[in-house]
Amino acid sequence: MTQAVITGIASYLPDDILDNEMLSKMVDTNDEWITTRVGIKERHILKEEGKGSSYLGKQAVDRLFADYNIDPASIDLLICATSNPDYRFPSTASVIIHECGLKKAYGYDIQAACAGFIVGMQDARAYITSGLYKRIVVVCAEKMSSMTDYQDRQTCPLFGDGAAAVLVEPSEDESLGVKDAELHVDGSGLPHLLMKAGGSVKPASVETVEAREHYVYQEGRAVYKHAVFDMLRSSLTVMQRNGLDAETLDWFVPHQANLRIIEAIGSRIKLPEEKILVNIQKTGNTSAASIPICLDEFKNKLHKGDKIVLTAFGAGFTWGAMYLVWAID
Predict the structure, then answer these.
(1) Radius of gyration over alpha carbons of the chain, in Å?
(2) Model confidence, pTM
(3) What does the pLDDT look like over 112-141, one tens digit per residue?
(4) Coil, strand, or helix at residue 168?
(5) In degrees, to the nearest 5, what angle opens at C-alpha 314 toward C-alphas 290 and 233?
(6) Pairwise CA distance, residues 91 & 82, whole Å
(7) CA distances, 210 to each of 112, 204, 231, 257 (Å)
(8) How far separated are the first and last CA of the chain, in Å rounded?
(9) Rounded Cα gap, residues 202 and 247, in angstroms
(10) Which of 18, 162, 257, 319 has the most CB atoms less than 10 A away?
(11) Distance (Å, whole) CA 26 – CA 14
């Protein structure tokens, strides 16, 4: 059976950094409070006027093509995972396709919040194994600063900007590639994590702007509890289905939202700390982009044949886990 394998990976973080000391001058917070609760020290921010998520995505895709000598004209499909599209329409995928010169590619956006990468990878897997497409770029591009309220001390320390892209291709080597995934959605989570205005239910108005309803709204306690339970449950399900345990799993890559959530899940799976890939201290929560950014940062540690479990949780609620075997030498 044809396998869907990652054959290239690249990421991009903007140059400007917003650290905890700088943030403490903007809102009533401090480094100790942020570090103790979420484990974040700094985050990257895209400050240039007129540049959105597509700009971040373009940088990641361009790096992917340059690093792996990929001809843009060879790409069949580009899937863009983002909660921060450039516009309500057209799709951010269409902008990236144009800017990167993908002359033959079809493309579309998906909105799975922080679970966007594993959802996009599941889509790519289906296209590859069906034979419909052969060369697919999954790009996650998130200008989280565009919907962060820097007057809200509870949420503004959490988020950063960034993007990452992977090339997914077919392989006849049945030992490699995406092996399994467990994806879920529960719409009852809507009130706990959302942007209250700007959609068709509550269109933008003077009143919604004045009420600051065009930013991330999050009820931290509820989100924390569900994130730990749901990422843990889906990860264990995927591991058990595939005969994996703390000893046989090589790497565990969770969504980088909160260091305490990551530690709680890792301890329950009984994973040694060195098997859990974490970079939240330097990036903050980059939503859909967090897992591939983390994979790219640690790619020199990864070896062909390594068994990896990815897990994420986001608005919706949307969550899940994916088991893949690394294919890049």
Answers:
(1) 19
(2) 0.98
(3) 999 999 999 999 999 999 999 999 999 999
(4) strand
(5) 100
(6) 10
(7) 28, 10, 36, 28
(8) 22
(9) 49
(10) 162
(11) 20
